[in-house]
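README, section 4: Worked example with a bound small molecule

Sections 1 through 3 covered apo chains. Here we extend the same pipeline to holo records, where the ligand is supplied as SMILES alongside the sequence. The molecule in this example is zinc ion. Nothing else about the input changes; the structure line simply encodes the ligand pose together with the chain.
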Amino acid sequence: MKITFLGTGGGRFTTISQKRMTGGFRIDDINGKNYHIDPGPGALVRSYQFGIKPTTLNGVFVSHAHTDHYTDVEVLIEAMTRGMTRENGVIIGSRSVFKGFKQWGPCISNYHRGKSDKLVLDPNKTKTVDGIKIKGTKTIHGDPTCVGFQMQANGLAISYTSDTKYFDKLHEYHKDADILIGSVIRPGTKSIKGHMCSGNFAKLVKEVNPKIAIMTHFGFKMLSENPANEAKYVQKKSGIRTIAAFDGMKLEIDDKNRNKVKIIKMKNKFAKNNQNLNHSINNDSNDKQTVLNSNNNQNTFIKDFSYKHENKKK
Ligand SMILES: [Zn+2]
Ligand SMILES: [Zn+2]
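The generated complex, written as structure tokens:
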């Protein structure tokens, strides 16, 4: 199984400035299927940029009706259905994404809903799709219907908080996660309404006790600090291996030996031929995790580590 980050930016200002990319992430080869999660602005282009074919999708997941999570979903649905000529795939999302809720959404036209299965996800609602158990997880966020998920296949559970503030029972929704992916918009211990800061995430990671925790969805303030240092802080506080995701980061989880997770920097296919399509993000000297403009065109192997998980009560 692989998880590829096609964007690790979040919030309005990171998105409109593209200080980091906002394409969401892909989970590939989960029970043989491929899902795009929260395809914000650029998801289609970033897929190609990092050598991933949108036409191989079996599903898209949109957690809520904010632009940094949904803008590219319709074009990805077109990719998934061969330009709306084939019945294929599943669209999973919040109530607001499909039907609209108060001033939020809907985000997908009737036309684009026409060729795929649909699953409206609510907290604790569980459905098995293609042999993958998908459970909705609660959030407290600006879009009241916003939903995270836990996906479980072949004994491995991936949890994604989506945008939410920290609350006492949040960990119950993500319990038993092996991999916990959190939207952590702010550094330090000062959160903003409807979002988590590093301090909140450290608490959550400790409570959930996953094998590995990944921080993504970084806002402006987070990027003016160093997300890698924030991850170190979370790791120290929680005792769990924690990584700050970067644009083009791929995690490879060995199905046979899950104690091995490989982190790969994806080849940036646009780097050589079209510098203009490269992002300006690396100009920010504080943003030390961002490495995409490097001239190295090979998949650069960064780190291969084993993690121990002694505290897990299962
Ligand atoms: Zn967001
Ligand atoms: Zn949001």
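What to look for in the output: DSSP finds ten helices and 17 strands in the chain. The first strand starts at residue 2 and ends at 7.

Section 5 describes how to batch many such records.
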